[in-house]
Amino acid sequence: MIVFRLAASLDNYTRLQKEKGHSIGFVPTMGALHQGHLSLVQRCKQETDIAVCSIFINPTQFNDPADLKKYPRTIEADILKLEQAKCDVLFIPGIEEMYPPNRAAIHYELGNLENDLEGMYRPGHFQGVCQAVHRLTDIVKPHKIFFGQKDFQQCLVIKRLFKNFQIPSEIVVNSTIREPSGLAMSSRNMRLTDEEREKATAIYKALINIKNNFTSVPFDKLVSDSTSFLLQHGFSKVDYIAICDANTLQPVSEWNGSQQLAVLIAAFINNVRLIDNMMLTDE
Ligand code: AMP
Fold first, then answer.
1. Which of 150, 159, 201, 273 to mutate to test the pocket of ligand 1 (most atoms within 8 A of CB)?
2. From the CA atom positions of the chain, what is the Rg in Å?
3. Do the bridges between strand 50-55 and strand 89-91 make them parallel or antiparallel, or are there none, so unpaired?
4. Spatial separation of the C-alpha atoms in residues 46 and 39, rounded to whole Å
5. Could you say which of 25, 39, 141, 143 is the most buried, measured as most Cβ atoms within 10 Å of its Cβ?
6. What kind and span of H or E run contains 95?
7. What pLDDT, in 10s, does the model give residues 110-148?
8. 3-state class of 279 per DSSP?
9. 85-113 CB burial, b ≥16 within 10 A, e <16
10. Nearest-CA residue for atom 11 of ligand 1
């Protein structure tokens, strides 16, 4: 695996590869890699000739400085995992590569995606995500870029970003990788004790329950029952449980039989905030 730290060097490399007729796939991450990230690398390798992964803990997407400080940093283990996964290229940019002083600040138009759900609880988060992904995409110029459904709203934001800026890369969304218990893999799980990890599976149980019952039980009852369920099973706070149109994230109170629906959850176990989601209708 070739490791680049400078945008210009990576740019030279990808340009050469493209001249040779090779397609470039790209998996942006913030490190602390687990099987969820590696599944994206694997898919990237299946679908493109050169798999590029980036690790950059993007400060502008953390609305809470304490959260940024606590974010796990495991670069040596990450490099080993990427080598084992036969990733071709790793890009580890410094802050000055990502935010060069001559790059003008942009405000991204995200409509309701900006302030709904995650946006409401993490003001500015998606502006930060767009800044980082836009910059990385400018550098890597991939044919295909890979994201996890785990960050459902982020995927919709990225689709909006690419449409607004006519970025020609194809966006591939890969399904969420879970522990055998159903817990969605996440870098934040590292901060859970064994007991909390066990309790955290209540999110998956709530998602499955909503999926099994959304055609027969009113949505507001599903949401209030699921909120109580999480609070009774070790969660200290539920930010939201929302049943939404899967393409627009607009709230839906009743299914019309054809709309694609998803349910999204964000909740705390002690001070660790977990998010997860599930499609209710066929994907
Ligand atoms: P992060 O490092 O948290 O920014 O995540 C990098 C990419 O990995 C994003 O596209 C995430 O959606 C994806 N990802 C994180 N966890 C999972 C998971 N459990 N399954 C699939 N993809 C994931």
1. 150
2. 19
3. parallel
4. 11
5. 25
6. helix 95-98
7. 999 999 999 999 999 999 999 999 999 999 999 999 999
8. strand
9. bebbbbbbbeeebbbeeeeeeeebebeeb
10. 148
Q: What is the pLDDT of residues 165-211, one digit of tens each?
A: 999 999 999 999 999 999 999 999 999 999 999 999 999 999 999 99
CA atoms within 13 A on the CB side of 175: 5
Report which ligand 1 atom has the smallest distance to the Cα of 150: 12
Distance in Å, CA 198 to ligand 1 centroid: 21
Ligand 1 and 36: CB distance under 6 A: yes
Question: Which residue type occupies 77?
Answer: A
Degrees to nearest 5, angle at CA 173 with 171 and 174: 140
State residue 168 phi and psi, 5-degree precision: -80, 0
Q: Could you tell me the distance, in angstroms and rounded to a whole number, from the CA of residue 152 to the centre of ligand 1?
A: 10
**CA 241 – CA 248 distance, rounded (Å):** 16
Q: Is 187 in the pocket of ligand 1 (CB under 6 A)?
A: yes
